[in-house]
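Collaborator request, handled under Task 6.
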Amino acid sequence: MARRTIGDIEKIWSNVEGVKKLSDRAVRIGPFGIGLDGLLTWVPVVGTVYSVGAAGWLLVQAARVKASPVTVARMVAYLGLDSVTTAVGEIPFLDFVPSVVDVLFPGHLMAAKALQRDIETTHWVEASEREARASGEHDRHVADMRRKGGLRRVAYLSD
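Structure tokens returned to the collaborator:
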């Protein structure tokens, strides 16, 4: 039996969608938006705690869905830049510029989109890779992935 199911992966995708909107698109102004990350950056310490906490949560979700190393690296870059600009805002007399950058740079949104794209381009299998290779099912899963188009990898949920 799988430790995780495809339903679990769908739930993670949905939860990431919620954080994406809350962090960087809670209030929409035309094609732009601002969320808790941008609003809280003006509140000392609280903004940094939220930004780093949301970044950590997104990275935990990436680990839970076994995101590809390229996706995780992209997420770390987006979230790192976002968190660093928030943290620099804690320094007196330097707090204005990073706060403006944090409002304009949707790091959580970009990282969440990268994770969601990784989830969408993965062929999920509720089995272990070892068992699939032993039974010959692995080749069928790879063929299914290629046939569907747009998928880049096979991920086994019981590994």
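The cover message to the collaborator said: "The mean pLDDT is 86. The beta strands are 27-29, 32-34, 122-125, 153-156. Please let us know whether this matches your experimental observations."
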